[in-house]
Amino acid sequence: MEKITSFTIDHIRLQPGVYVSRYDTVGAETVTTFDLRLTSPNEEPVMNTAEVHTIEHLAATYLRNEPVWKDKVLYFGPMGCRTGFYLLLAGKYTSLQVLDLVRSCFSFIASYEGEIPGAGARDCGNYLDMNLPMARYWARRYCALLENPGKDRLEYPV
Question: Going by C-beta distance under 8 Å and a sequence separation of 6 or more, which residues neighbour residue 110?
């Protein structure tokens, strides 16, 4: 079998940032997959499932309600390695083009207070596995990193 694209990225050199993971064509439409990397793989601790789950609920809710982008959002969800998230958008975009969207999404999470959307037994298959304080911590950390990212945080290392 061929190695898939995401396994060809040098995870030793990869740092937190916003990266275009791939472009796919579906019919006449391009789908852009973004790698929203919150931790440095194999170097920093990974996020626990509770905060990953909380970020997933909050980000998905925010993105699917964001007036400009909501109709372009196809998916937001965690990476299995728990170092970040995937964001899939209908259309062809660069990291720079979505940077403000990602910043505003994680700023929303960083300051979120109240009940987590969809965090009830009827709405979620694992509603007890949530940790809002840690989700806010990771979101604040990511926001700080994205305040003024260099090219190395927007393009995969070569």
Answer: 136, 139, 140, 143
